[in-house]
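Q: what sequence does this backbone want?
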């Protein structure tokens, strides 16, 4: 839950009880793993609408957990997402080579960072919380066999390209989780990733 004191744990416990009551109907058809992820997202954002906006491919949880348990890495689009994840993760957006590639190709650094990760043999879960351009590049690289994205959390936020990139991911066979429409962002991406990490270690989500 993220709490480290008795008082903090009690607040988190009560909050989770409220969340479960608010979204119980919306998550009734989800698997236990999917429901746990949605609960953590709603708890982290205080927004019950995510129980209706979050969608999973049928193999997402199984493939994501398999990746984590087999020493797969975690790759993020921006440093803020990486900083919130509870295990060491990778973000290449600040790499000089990524800045050079973005300028040379006239693409965003977030998209260039996915190409950099692919060229350096990344394997594991990709977590996109902010950059639709990064998500689109992940889709392209994965379908081309250039990036070993074993599961993708695709929840970029915004009104330009975010919904479209998530729909593009939804239309693939890549194991994925998305939030429909423009909503998403760092808190959603971090909550989903940390829920998976807890599940992979059989810890409380």
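A:
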């Amino acid at each position: 839950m993220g709490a480290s004191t008795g008082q903090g744990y009690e607040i988190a416990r009560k909050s989770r009880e409220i969340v479960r009551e608010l979204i119980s109907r919306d998550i009734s058809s989800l698997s236990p793993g999917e429901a746990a992820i949605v609960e953590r997202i709603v708890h982290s954002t205080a927004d019950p609408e995510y129980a209706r906006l979050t969608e999973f491919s049928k193999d997402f949880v199984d493939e994501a957990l398999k990746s984590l348990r087999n020493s797969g890495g975690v790759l993020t689009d921006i440093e803020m997402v990486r900083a919130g994840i509870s295990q060491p993760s990778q973000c290449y957006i600040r790499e000089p080579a990524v800045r050079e590639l973005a300028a040379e190709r006239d693409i965003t650094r977030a998209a260039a960072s996915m190409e950099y990760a692919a060229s350096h043999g990344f394997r594991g879960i990709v977590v996109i919380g902010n950059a639709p351009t990064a998500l689109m590049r992940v889709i392209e690289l994965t379908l081309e066999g250039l990036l070993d994205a074993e599961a993708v959390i695709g929840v970029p936020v915004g009104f330009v390209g975010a919904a479209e990139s998530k729909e593009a991911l939804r239309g693939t066979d890549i194991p994925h989780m998305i939030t429909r429409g423009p909503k998403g962002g760092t808190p959603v991406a971090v909550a989903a990733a940390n829920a998976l990490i807890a599940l992979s270690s059989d810890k409380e989500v």
